[in-house]
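forwarding from the other thread:

> can someone predict this with CA2?

sure thing
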Amino acid sequence: MKILCLSGPNLNMLGLREPGIYGASSLEDIHQSLQDQAAADGMSVDCRQSNHEGELVTWIQQARGNFDAIILNAGAYTHTSIALRDAISAAELPTIEVHLSNIHARETFRHTSMIASVCAGQIAGFGSHSYRLALEACKDLKA
Ligand code: CA2
């Protein structure tokens, strides 16, 4: 099973600022842990990050036929991006929405996800472990 893991804007700053909200792990740490877990489960995961909405849209478009599922932390674009929502819908690949923080326990503007209704499900609030839980969810999608 081939998984595409995408992280959106500012997530390249993980571990450098705001550890109280997002934890101490860097995105590289999270990617390494995910790749180790995937390898142990006979899966592969291609991890990418972009600060650009259009680049994330392009990667989602290109995923069709090349990956079996997408793990997506769209960062702040979660709350604003109809373009990402449309791309996920068109890709027709199971997509797991991931957040490090519990977006529903934070500011009101983070309670709305533009992408939730086109995703297979949402995992939020477990720090870096949210990504690993999403990989677990991908395994179940295959079954
Ligand atoms: O909890 C999450 O994973 C979020 O997707 C993170 C986004 C936020 O806009 C979403 O509402 C929830 C922000 C990521 C910013 O990450 C930073 C990390 C370190 C320093 C500054 C920003």
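The chain has a mean pLDDT of 96. thats all i got for now
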